[in-house]
UniProtKB/TrEMBL annotation:
Phylogenetic placement of the source organism: Eukaryota, Metazoa, Chordata, Craniata, Vertebrata
The keyword Nucleus is assigned to this record: yes
Chain intervals with Polar residues compositional bias: 440-456
Biased composition (Low complexity): 424-439, 458-471
Compositional bias segments (type: Basic residues): 502-515
SUPFAM superfamilies: WD40 repeat-like
Localization terms from the record: Cytoplasm; Nucleus
Record's protein name: WD repeat-containing protein 20
Length: 613
C-alpha cells in the first residue's frame, strides 16, 4: 500500500496513516524502506496465534567493517542476516542461516557478545514448548538443547539472556512464573530435578537443584504470581529487574539472591522492563497502557508516562541520546569529586561509563550536572513513543532556574529560558492537583510535583513520607551464596515435593483489538510454596508501591506516532538508527538525523513516497 511521507508535526490525523518520518529536537528520523528486513518473500506474516516477533543484534568484529548481524523470528521460522543498517539496502535473498521448526515456535533469543567472532557466535533460542536451544548460525550448528524432555518446565519461554560477563551461564524465564539459571557445560539429566530451598522472601523463593553431580538447572527462582514476562540485568550485571503478570516489578541483587525493591503497576500485568544507562532508573510498561519510571536508589515511582492507547510491549533507553552535561559549577554545591564523577557523556564508551557511574552514585541532594534521559516505547496500539526524562522530574526540589531541561513544566506562567517545548496534540491531557514527591529517608523534602511535556498542572498540597525500603540491601552480606550453592548445594534445607498445578488462563478482549493476550501454558512443575500470597490491588494503590496518578509527575511523549499496521514488538536503539518490528514480520530501520547512508539516500530519493506494507 502506497502512502504519503509525513513529517511528525504536520498532516492529517487519519486512523490508518502510517508515519515514515518524525521530528524531535535533534532532527528528523527517517524510515529507510530499502533497509527493511523480513522473510525473503516480503509477504506479511499471518500473525494470528503466533508468538511475538523478536530481534537480536551482535557485532562479530568483521575486518570488512560490516560486522553487525541480526537475528529475528517470524512464526516457526528463525533468520540470521548480515545487518547493513543505514549503509546499504537489505539483501533478503542471502540469509546466513534459516531454520524452520516443527511442533514449537521460537519466542526469544540472545547472543553472547563476549564470545562472538567472525567465525562463530553463540545464540540462545527459547521456544513456546519450554525448550532452549544453543546454536551457532555462522557454523550452522546446533550444539545443545536444554529442557529437551520438558522435565524442568513445560511452559512457554518468555525471556532468555546470557548472564553479563559470563561465557557459559544463562538465565531463562517461563510463563509458569519460574526462572532458571543454566550452565551450557552441564547436562539437564534424564529425570525431573529435585530442589531444596536456598532462600525465600515476600512472593519469591530460590531453590538449588539437589543431585549427586552438578546438573541443570543450577538455580530455580519462583517469582510472583502468573507468568514472568521479562527480565533485564542492570548495566553492571549485579542486579536483576523482573516484571510479572501479577503487575509487580521486582528488583533483585542477583549474586546475593536478595530482593532490593518492588513496584506495582497501576493495574494489570507488567510486560516489559529496561534500565537506564547508569543503572539509576528502571522503566516498566504493561497492561495499564503506561510507562512507569522507578528510582533504583529511592525504591519508588518517580513518574508515569501516558501516550499509548493499548498495552505497552517494549521499553528501551536510548544510550546515544541520553546525556549528562556539565553545568555552571557556581550553581551547585557538590564536591569536586562528585562533580568529576558525573561528567560523562553516554556514547560509544557507554558500557564503561555506566559501570563507573553505577558504582559512584551521588547522594540525592547533590546534583552537579544537567541530566536528560531519552527512552522509547512501542505498543500493541502500533504506536512509537519517545520520552525525555529531565531534571525537573528527577530532582523536583531544585529551582528550575538551575536546571537545563527540555521538558515543558506548566506550573509557571512561562517556561524556563532555553527550554525546548515539544507538544503532541494527539496525546491525552490530564489536569489535576499534585501532591508532593515522596523522597525516602531523612532527606525527604516538601515540593510541588511538576507535570512534564505540556501537561497543565496547578499547584497542590505537599506531602512527605519515609520509605522503609532499604536501598542497596544485600550488597556484601551473602554475596557468595550463589557460588557456594552451585558448587556444593545446600543440604540443610528439606526438599519440597512437586505437584500438578492448574494454570490460570488470563484472557482479555482488548479495547483496541491489538492484543495477543498473555495466556499461560499448563505447568506441572510449580512448587507448593506457602510464601506465595495474593496482593490486594486496592491495598497497594496510594502507597509507595503504587502511587495514585495525581501523586507523581505525568510525562507526555515527545512524539507518539503510528508506524505499523500490526502491534509493535521490538524497539532497539543503535548508534546510527533505531529499529522497530511489528507482528507482520517487518523489521524497520529508522535513520537518526544526519545518518542516512548514501545508497539509502539515493534509493529513498528515487521513490516519491515511502512504501510501508
Amino acid at each position: 500500500m502506497l502512502i504519503s511521507k509525513m513529517a511528525a508535526e504536520g498532516g492529517g490525523k487519519e486512523m490508518n496513516e502510517i508515519k515514515t518520518q518524525f521530528t524531535t529536537r535533534e532532527g528528523v528520523y527517517k524510515l529507510l524502506t530499502h533497509s527493511e528486513y523480513s522473510r525473503p518473500n516480503r509477504v506479511p506474516f499471518n500473525s494470528q496465534g503466533s508468538n511475538p516477533v523478536k530481534v537480536s543484534f551482535v557485532n562479530v568484529n568483521d575486518q570488512s567493517g560490516n560486522g553487525d548481524r541480526i537475528c529475528f523470528n517470524v512464526g516457526r521460522e528463525l533468520y540470521f542476516y548480515i545487518y547493513k543498517g543505514v549503509r546499504k539496502a537489505a539483501d533478503l535473498s542471502k540469509p546466513i542461516d534459516k531454520r524452520i521448526y516443527k511442533g514449537t515456535q521460537p519466542t526469544c533469543h540472545d547472543f553472547n557478545h563476549l564470545t562472538a567472532t567472525a567465525e562463530s557466535v553463540s545464540l540462545l533460542v527459547g521456544f513456546s514448548a519450554g525448550q532452549v536451544q544453543l546454536i551457532d548460525p555462522i557454523k550452522k550448528e546446533t550444539s545443545k538443547l536444554f529442557n529437551e524432555e520438558r522435565l524442568i518446565d513445560k511452559s512457554r519461554v518468555t525471556c532468555v539472556k546470557w548472564v553479563p560477563g559470563s561465557e557459559s551461564l544463562f538465565l531463562v524465564s517461563h510463563a509458569s512464573g519460574n526462572m532458571y539459571l543454566y550452565n551450557v557445560e552441564h547436562t539437564c539429566g534424564t529425570t525431573a530435578p529435585h530442589y531444596q530451598l536456598l532462600k525465600q522472601g515476600e512472593n519469591y523463593s530460590v531453590h538449588t537443584c539437589k543431585s549427586k553431580s552438578t546438573r541443570n538447572p543450577l538455580l530455580k527462582w519462583t517469582v510472583g504470581e502468573g507468568a514472568l514476562n521479562e527480565f533485564a540485568f542492570s548495566p553492571d550485571g549485579k542486579f536483576l529487574a523482573c516484571v510479572s503478570q501479577d503487575g509487580f516489578l521486582r528488583v533483585f541483587n542477583f549474586d546475593a539472591v536478595e530482593l532490593h525493591g518492588t513496584m506495582k503497576s497501576y493495574f494489570g500485568g507488567l510486560l516489559c522492563v529496561c534500565w537506564s544507562p547508569d543503572g539509576k532508573y528502571i522503566v516498566a510498561g504493561g497492561e495499564d497502557d503506561l510507562v512507569t519510571v522507578w528510582s533504583f536508589l529511592d525504591c519508588r515511582v518517580i513518574a508515569r508516562g501516558h501516550g499509548h492507547k493499548s498495552w505497552v510491549s517494549v521499553v528501551a533507553f536510548d544510550h546515544y541520546t541520553t546525556s549528562v552535561e556539565e553545568s555552571d559549577p557556581m550553581e551547585f554545591s557538590g564536591s569536586d569529586e562528585d562533580f568529576q564523577d558525573q561528567m560523562i557523556h553516554f556514547g560509544r564508551d557507554r558500557a564503561n561509563s555506566t559501570q563507573s557511574r553505577l558504582s559512584k552514585r551521588n547522594s540525592t541532594d547533590s546534583r552537579p550536572v544537567s541530566v536528560t534521559y531519552r527512552f522509547g516505547s512501542v505498543g500493541q496500539d502500533t504506536q512509537l513513543c519517545l520520552w525525555d526524562l529531565t531534571e525537573d522530574i528527577l530532582f523536583p526540589h531544585l529551582p528550575l532556574s538551575r536546571t537545563r531541561t527540555h521538558t515543558n513544566v506548566m506550573n509557571a506562567t512561562s517556561p524556563p529560558a532555553g527550554a525546548t517545548i515539544i507538544t503532541n496534540t494527539s496525546s491525552n491531557t490530564t489536569n489535576g492537583n499534585n501532591s508532593g514527591a515522596n523522597t525516602p529517608g531523612i532527606n525527604s523534602l516538601s515540593t510541588t510535583l511538576p507535570r512534564s511535556n505540556s501537561l497543565p498542572h496547578s499547584a497542590g498540597t505537599t506531602t512527605t513520607a519515609n520509605n522503609a525500603n532499604k536501598a542497596g540491601s544485600g550488597g556484601g552480606i551473602g554475596s557468595g551464596i550463589m557460588d557456594s550453592a552451585i558448587a556444593t548445594g545446600v543440604s540443610k534445607f528439606a526438599t519440597l515435593s512437586l505437584h500438578d498445578r492448574k494454570e490460570r488462563h488470563h484472557e482479555k478482549d482488548h479495547k483496541r483489538n491489538h492484543s495477543m493476550g498473555h495466556i499461560s501454558s499448563k505447568s506441572s512443575d510449580k512448587l507448593n510454596l506457602l510464601t506465595k500470597t495474593k496482593t490486594d490491588p486496592a491495598k497497594t494503590l496510594g502507597t509507595l508501591l503504587c502511587p495514585r496518578m495525581e501523586d507523581v509527575p505525568l510525562l507526555e511523549p515527545l512524539i507518539c506516532k503510528k508506524i505499523a499496521h500490526e502491534r509493535l514488538t521490538v524497539l532497539i536503539f543503535l548508534e546510527d538508527c533505531l529499529v522497530t518490528a511489528c507482528q507482520e514480520g517487518f523489521i524497520c530501520t529508522w535513520a537518526r538525523p544526519g545518518k542516512v547512508g548514501l545508497l539509502s539516500s539515493q534509493n529513498q530519493a528515487s521513490s516519491p513516497s515511502g512504501t510501508v506494507v
